Amino acid sequence: MQKIVHLKSKKHSMIIKVGRVPEILHWGANIAKIDPDLILSTERPISQARLDVDVPLSLCPELGSGHFNAPGIEGHRHGEDWAPVFEMKALTCDEQSASFTLEDTVAKLELLIEVKLDFNSDVVQKRITVKNVADKEYCLGKLSSTLSLPNHANELMTFHGRWCHEFQTQRLSFEHGGFMQENRRGRTSHENFPGLFVGSKGFSEQVGQVWGFHLGWSGNHQLRADVRSDGRRFVQAGELLLSGEVHLKEGEEYQSPWLYATYSNTGLNGISERFHEFVRANIIKFPTKKARPVHLNTWEGIYFDHKPEYIMQMATEAAEMGVERFIIDDGWFIGRDGERAALGDWYLDEKKYPNGLEPVINHVNEQGMEFGLWVEPEMVSEDSNLYRQHPDWVLSLPGYQQPSGRWQYVLDLQNPDCFSYLFDRLNDLLTRYNIGYFKWDMNRELVQPGHHGKPAVHGQTKALYRLFDELRLAHPDVEIESCSSGGGRIDFEILQRTHRFWASDCNDALERQAIQRGMSYFFPPEVMGAHIGPAECHSTNRRHAINMRGVTALSGHMGVELDPVKESAEEKQAFAHYIQLHKQYRDLLHSGRSFRIDPADQSQNIYGVENGEEMLITVCQLAMPNHALPAPLRVRCVEKEATYEVKIVEMPHTSFQLMKQRPQWLDQTLTLSGDNLEEIGVTLPILDPESALIVHLKKM
Ligand code: DGJ
């Protein structure tokens, strides 16, 4: 068997030493060729007072071979076979992928470790499969993917959050000990986004070596980054299995979710660039190539107060503003007058819609808009016909009461009758009505996720994927939004089956600046639902001028979340203006290379997108400027020698409070070369707190 596997992509190499187990020797910048002395030159000494043999930090570290940190696999067979030690049995590989088959002939387990390096995007994918080859059942406790990192990866950036406050980041030293995140909420969650970054100390948006990780999974997970006492370090991610959740009979397998990872020597920008490229090419599957339609979603406009005539008026006004997809949110189905009842009863409420839904849909279509509808299929309200008929369809543990969440329970999707009921109801809606889009919500966590009394988050997550897959097969043109009280289910695996995320229930533009920044590390703008809300935000009561709201929503998959009928003519004109601006730059926004700029003033958020010909940069002043004068905006252009036309395409409309004289160029178009823009930059106006501007650059 060969001793070295060298995976190569456009810019990166991963070199894996093949011994008893596979072990990463290098993962990062491209290595042209393997030196004959590589194995010799990387041989480790053995330190005093430790084991007498060298223990590799393998792609699946084992307790039984002397890895004293988190093992990659845990489990047992009635208390036996709990510390397996594997031996390499077979290897197949080419320049972009390797599959290692390992076996433990004592514990009678087989492992398949798959590693792929995507040539174009430089993104690594890794997963592990374990097979029980004994006739006694094996109870699997854990099977995680491990990737080791060099010692100069010594700072962590992790995510935390909560409802209306998703994708917040924090920095941690990564010299000793480590970081661990366990998600037991049964959905990807607002709290524990399954991603993290490890980099060289002080890595920033534009500078430094960084390794980025994301686990593509929508259930429970464990994510950790550990530094061993010998200085070697690794990131490990996998599904968090509940006690007794996975039992493998003879010949049965468990396959871990994919761990996605990449490296950059240009800070976080290099990471997001690669993840975006990978997602665009391999994860998102839009049914057609059409531009992402601008939305109006009715939720914050009317909540549960559905009157068809009024909704049609909203639609007329939405179309006048430039909206292209009109979505009726929660409240349309039988008995749904508030959040305490009716989930599960997916039939139109004919009291609210005495003439059916068709007139509304026809009206929406006549205005040139697509029609979308809200559903929350996984849930049932205690006060619903479905629950009264099938209380046993709920995920639960016999003998216990479980707390409800938003007065609802989670349905057991592994129950075939329940699964068929849901498929039939959704299929019926999609067949009966001209629905182009489902907003698929999921508003509570799994508290007692029991299927026949056994832990079932794994099975529930798989069954959910199957429900999506079967519906998409039956209705391939329908697009789906993944919403879970806002950003509670955002990950690559759900994105294989959906087309947009509702990033957060928070439409407060200031909060959104942080949420969208965090999300932008992994997901490209075209899947990030971002809406203009009313002046006074419903989730924070904070007020923002339309400039801040419009600019913040403009750079994602844009929409509006309000009742246009109640808005002033002036506000409506402004919505139309931002929608038009979004459409003007939509191609660039939704296909270009996104980046962020390290601001001289930490109270600014600066981000942009470029495609080699054009660039759009947003400067958002989050709080009071740090100094009386702003630092020049220095822009890294692809071509230093090229000449660019530079002009401001959006600025606050109200008078500036902190500035009495504007730089003259604000009303002109500048002509500047790439090196001037990068090294000297352009002077900005003094922005008041919570306001923003957009600069456009065009190569001449
Ligand atoms: C939570 C979602 O995030 C909101 O956008 C809205 O759809 C409500 N649920 C409806 O109940």
Automatic annotation (TrEMBL):
Domain of life: Bacteria
Binding site for substrate: W163, D329, D330, R406, K439, W440, D441, M442, N443, C483, D505
Entry EC number(s): 3.2.1.22
InterPro entries recorded: Aldolase_TIM, Alpga-gal_N_sf, Alpha-glycosidase_related, GH, Glyco_hydro_27/36_CS, Glyco_hydro_36, Glyco_hydro_36_N
Group of enzyme by EC: hydrolase
Cited CDD domains: GH36 (cd14791)
Biological-process GO terms, alphabetical: carbohydrate catabolic process
Classification via Gene3D superfamilies: Aldolase class I, alpha-galactosidase from lactobacil brevis
Swiss-Prot/TrEMBL catalytic activity: Hydrolysis of terminal, non-reducing alpha-D-galactose residues in alpha-D-galactosides, including galactose oligosaccharides, galactomannans and galactolipids
Glycosyl hydrolase family 36 N-terminal domain residues: 22-248
Alphabetically ordered keywords of this record: Glycosidase, Hydrolase
PROSITE patterns according to UniProt: ALPHA_GALACTOSIDASE (PS00512)
Active site: D441, D505
MF terms (GO), sorted A to Z: alpha-galactosidase activity
SUPFAM superfamilies linked to this entry: (Trans)glycosidases (SSF51445)
Family: Belongs to the glycosyl hydrolase.
Record protein name field: Alpha-galactosidase
Protein source organism: Vibrio renipiscarius
